[in-house]
Amino acid sequence: MNQIQLVDLHTQYLKIKKEIDAAVLRVIDSTAFINGPEVKDFASELEAYLNVKHVIPCANGTDALQIALMAIDVKPGDEILTPSFTYIATAEVIALLQLKPVFVEVDTDTFTIDVADAKSKITSKTKAIIPVHLYGQCANMDAVMELAKDSGIYVIEDTAQAIGSDYTSSTGQKQKAGCIGHIGTTSFFPSKNLGCYGDGGAMMTNDDALADQLRMIANHGQSVKYHHDIIGCNSRLDSIQAAVLRIKLRHLDAYTAARNQAAAFYNEAFDAIEEITTPFIAPYSNHGFHQYTIKLHNVDRDALQAYLNEQGIPANIYYPVPVHLQKGYAQYGAKPGDMPKTESLTSQVLSLPMHTELTEDQLNYIVEHVIRFIKG
Ligand SMILES: *Cc1c(COP(=O)(O)O)cnc(C)c1O
After folding, report:
1. Which of 87, 158, 354 to mutate to test the pocket of ligand 1 (most atoms within 8 A of CB)?
2. Taking Cα atoms as reference points, which of 258, 254, 130, 248 lies closest to residue 189?
3. Can you tell me the distance from the alpha carbon of 367 to that of 269, in angstroms, rounded to the nearest whole number?
4. Domain that holds residue 117
5. Into how many domains does the chain fold?
6. φ and ψ at 36, to 5 degrees?
7. Which of 204, 229, 249 is the last residue of a domain?
8. Chain CA centroid to CA 187, Å
9. Does one domain contain both 204 and 351?
């Protein structure tokens, strides 16, 4: 049995090595490293895959969030609703732009934004809501969109963990994650479901005016070369990464299927273990299983994690501290107990190895050890 990894990028690479190597060498030979044809082709191919009008590539998922906020014309002091149970990037860009992050609870089944709590925190200063499709499953976008419409605020979907996931609205309409709100953002960090071999990110929108704005901001606020109409930044996807992504995009659905297969194996093995709650699948979203995250009850979670690590099984906690209780975010005035659902989740969750290359031997080994620790 090969060594178990949280994410096995090397085995995945070996299966597409010929294509990848040729594509990377082709870019080097062309020397079109920046804004070359690969970047444009990747953007159009991702637009077709997502069925969205505009994909605007950029340097990483954090930039994508920042540029999205800049594009909706925010002013210092404006409030942005965001779940506290997320990766720091979501809140970081809000703070960096001198906006006020307003932390919202998550639903304890889906780990995604609790829209009722968001609604109770809307003020006259609220400018946008950023639902995060955590672990690969879409937030309840019907509820998010309704709230946004009623309150006149923007919706920016953080899709870094859920690229390719399908959302089904109450009318039965199917849309890809990130293409429902005003702007969607994603990351192509290597370990993400659609990962490149370095940094990368993108923004998605069906709105032509927002697309122009996003493109301009990502390119130094430039309308015509050397004419800068607004203050922008420099955020580009490079051609080598785009070439890698064009190949991996063709495999994305197969990768998602492989993740779902591994998840189904875990689900079945843990079905009868009452100390474990396996991932809840919401009726409105399928799951991309960026992470396979269980909730533990009456189990010493940290001891289980240490035991698994000793057995050569990497298991991780996403995320051990919610954003509202992070030291760097103390200025926003939150204190322990403010968000009971989020805070209790951070003490319960454990993410098991999840990637496209898990073998049945490895899965068996993992579940045996999890169950052995719990049942003794
Ligand atoms: C990974 C991630 C990001 C940031 O992406 P980078 O490409 O690393 O900047 C943002 N939000 C979420 C939820 C993420 O998981």
Report:
1. 87
2. 248
3. 7
4. 9-249
5. 2
6. -75, 180
7. 249
8. 7
9. no
DSSP state of 34: B
The atom number, within ligand 1, closest to the CA of 132 reads: 13
Q: Are residues 314 and 185 in the same domain?
A: no
* Residue 358 burial (10 A CB sphere; 0-12, 13-18, 19+): buried
In a domain, 1, yes or no: no
CA of 161 to the centre of ligand 1 (A): 8
Dihedral of alpha carbons 216, 221, 226, 229, sign: positive
Whether residue 319 has a cis bond before it, omega within 30° of 0:
yes
Both 219 and 261 in one domain: the answer is: no
Pocket test for ligand 1, best of 187, 197, 233, 351 (most atoms within 8 A of CB): 187
Which residue bears the tokens 């995604």? 112
Alpha-carbon span 230 to 216, nearest angstrom: 8
117-174 pLDDT, tens per residue?
999 999 999 999 999 999 999 999 999 999 999 999 999 999 999 999 999 999 999 9
Task: List Cα–Cα distances, 37 to 27, 33, 50, 182, 325, in angstroms.
Answer: 9, 9, 20, 27, 44
In a shared domain, residues 97 and 198 = yes
Which strand (E) or helix (H) includes residue 204?
strand 201-205
One domain, residues 20 and 148: yes
- Cα atoms found within 13 Å of the Cα of residue 24, Cβ hemisphere only: 14
Which pLDDT tens digit goes with each residue over 87-119? 999 999 999 999 999 999 999 999 999 999 999
Q: Is residue 2 part of a domain?
A: no
Domain boundary among 217, 249, 281: 249
CA 356 / ligand 1 centre spacing (Å): 19
**Sole residue written with tokens 């100390």:** 275
Tell whether 4 is covered by a domain: no
CB 285, CB 164: distance < 8 Å: no
Residue 373 has a pLDDT of 98
